[in-house]
Design a protein that fits this description.
Organism: Planotetraspora kaengkrachanensis
CATH topology of the largest domain: Uridine Diphospho-n-acetylenolpyruvylglucosamine Reductase, domain 3
Number of domains: 3
CATH class of the largest domain: Alpha Beta
Strand content: 25-35%
Keywords: FAD, Flavoprotein, Oxidoreductase
Number of strands: 14
Structural class: alpha+beta
Shape: globular
InterPro entries: CO_DH_flav_C, CO_DH_flav_C_dom_sf, Diverse_Substr_Oxidored, FAD-bd_PCMH, FAD-bd_PCMH-like_sf, FAD-bd_PCMH_sub1, FAD-bd_PCMH_sub2, Mopterin_DH_FAD-bd
GO molecular function: FAD binding; oxidoreductase activity
Number of helices: 11
Protein name: Carbon-monoxide dehydrogenase medium subunit
């Protein structure tokens, strides 16, 4: 299907992009890699009056170490994130999850910021953002603001980005030593959306689980933080399979998974429990050295 007509702009600086977006009206959309937006245009599920292409805007691409956090530019491609030594060292969960996004062709064009701004609960990265307490940096004619991931995803394909705002970067906190990470994903084919996904981070001390963070993919209209699992796993012996399994049984609590051609809600709840157990075990087994 052919998309509806729209105006097209390609600014070269962030200042120009902000001005163009503000002048294009509330129905304008930001275009980066295009792997989320273009299919919606072709199916006429989105009718933007204008596209503002930020793919060549200087300063929006790259990964940098900022001391207590890693800053990932909004237009950094998935492949660049996966290959970044900084990401691999300081936020390995991001690298693990990003490596599962679609296929190599998509990862070479799709962008890290675009996946988050699209706010699809079936995407792999929103749940990771929630689990790691990422902070999203946005800019508009009114200035800059920072939005915690916990308040960024509002509903299905709906984020806290206001009209005229552009996502410029994502802060990923460094969790430090003693943490282990894993992303467990069930999908029908290698390039498909996750039927269910689980992002897990586990901190151990003296053989005991001290802290757990779990984000769920495709278990509601937004990514879900599995707080019941986090509370139940705290204090469990790290190698105790039974304790982690009992904690994982709480994974579906408070979720509202969708029904579609791939799975019904009860099956997704079952998957959430099974995958959370696997993710907790793997995260417990692979951790950075404590200091």
């Amino acid at each position: 299907m052919i998309p509806a007509s729209f105006d097209y702009f390609r600014p070269s600086t962030i200042e120009e992009a902000v001005d163009v977006l503000a002048g294009a009206g509330e129905e304008a959309k930001v275009l980066a890699g295009g792997h989320s937006l273009l299919p919606l245009l072709r199916l006429r599920l989105a009718y933007p009056t204008a596209l503002v292409d930020v793919g060549r805007v200087a300063g929006l691409r790259g990964v940098s170490d900022r001391g207590d956090h890693v800053l990932i530019g909004a237009t950094t491609t998935h492949d660049e994130v996966v290959r970044s030594p900084i990401v691999r060292e300081h936020c390995p969960l991001v690298a693990l999850a990003t490596a599962t996004v679609a296929d190599p062709a998509v990862r070479h064009r799709g962008t890290f910021g675009g996946s988050l701004a699209h706010a699809d609960p079936a995407g792999d990265l929103p749940a990771v953002a929630l689990a790691l307490d990422m902070v999203l940096e946005v800019r508009s004619p009114a200035g800059e603001r920072a939005i915690p991931a916990a308040g960024f995803f509002l509903d299905y394909l709906e984020s806290a980005l206001a009209p005229g705002e552009i996502l410029t970067g994502v802060r990923v906190p460094k969790l430090g030593p003693g943490w282990g990470f894993h992303y467990e994903k069930f999908h029908r084919t290698a390039q498909a959306w996750a039927t269910v996904g689980v992002a897990a981070a586990v901190r151990q001390s003296n053989g005991t689980v001290e802290e757990v963070r779990v984000g769920l993919t495709n278990m509601g209209s937004t990514p879900v933080r599995a707080t019941a699992v986090e509370e139940a796993a705290r204090g469990v012996e790290a190698g105790q399979n039974g304790g982690l399994r009992r904690a994982a049984e709480q994974a579906a609590e408070g979720t509202d998974p969708p029904a579609d051609l791939h799975a019904q809600p009860d099956y997704r709840m079952h998957l959430a429990r099974v995958l959370t157990h696997r993710a907790l075990l793997s995260a417990s087994a692979h951790r950075s050295p404590a200091t």
